Q: What sequence folds into this?
């Protein structure tokens, strides 16, 4: 049996609350088109020295034992254009996972922040122009991040320590640190049961 049962219960866009409102968010035909503000980003201290807390993340509760996933389309053109799924406890503890245009390539990765941020990336140039799904599963003492393009199986991205008693929220996010005009079309936002196993 697969460790991943794809989430089927829709989360309505109106259930979420923005961490920072985007330039625009327009619901049409069940999708949500989000246009980022230039300079929006999420990062804390490491290497760069700055704190950015201006991501556009639309969040709803993600209790222990559940999973959440988003599917989206975007045209990535500028350094650090990014979209995916954000998990937030507070301003110093959060995770962003998804795809990001960095140094000329589309990259799959995650930033895990607990006081300070870290960053892991792997190139996925073959995902350009395709619909991306990012999934976060919360079970016990961990978050498990998976992602995939189109209808391909989701691949394991990262396993993150995450205490079961933390009050957290999660949902789609967009950031455009270096330009105006990044628009991401979120096709779906769903929740379901946590993954049954890692492999």
A:
């Amino acid at each position: 049996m697969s460790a991943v049962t794809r989430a089927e219960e829709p989360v309505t866009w109106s259930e979420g609350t923005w961490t920072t409102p985007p330039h625009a968010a327009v619901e049409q035909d069940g999708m949500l088109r989000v246009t980022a503000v230039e300079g929006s980003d999420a990062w804390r201290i490491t290497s760069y020295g700055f704190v950015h807390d201006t991501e556009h993340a639309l969040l709803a509760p993600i209790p222990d034992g559940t999973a959440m996933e988003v599917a989206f389309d975007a045209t990535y053109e500028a350094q650090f254009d990014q979209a995916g799924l954000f998990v937030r406890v507070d301003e110093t503890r959060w995770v962003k996972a998804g795809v990001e245009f960095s140094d000329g390539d589309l990259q799959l990765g995650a930033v895990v922040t607990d006081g300070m941020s870290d960053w892991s990336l792997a190139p996925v140039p073959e995902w350009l122009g395709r619909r991306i799904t990012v999934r976060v599963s919360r079970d016990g003492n961990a978050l498990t991040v998976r992602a995939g393009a189109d209808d391909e199986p989701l691949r394991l991205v990262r396993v993150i320590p995450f205490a079961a008693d933390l009050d957290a929220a999660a949902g789609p996010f967009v950031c455009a640190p270096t330009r105006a005009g990044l628009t991401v079309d979120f096709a779906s936002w769903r929740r379901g049961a946590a993954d049954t196993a890692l492999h």
